[in-house]
Design a protein that fits this description.
Blueprint (H helix, E strand, L loop, with lengths): L6 E3 L2 E3 L15 H16 L1
Antiparallel strand pairs: 1-2
């Protein structure tokens, strides 16, 4: 059973909307989500 990519709060799955209770707006920003990958690639390639 796979439940990846969902946010749970008080054992209930929350809809994927921004901002939701308990979810900061930046946590759902796709541009911010790609930043760690970019940094990792830069470190590997340098």
């Amino acid at each position: 059973m796979s439940i990846g990519g969902r946010h749970f709060e008080d054992n209930e799955a929350l809809p994927h909307v921004a901002p939701a209770d308990g979810v900061a707006a930046h946590a759902l920003d796709p541009a911010i989500a790609t930043r760690p990958w970019e940094v990792s690639l830069d470190l590997l390639l340098s």
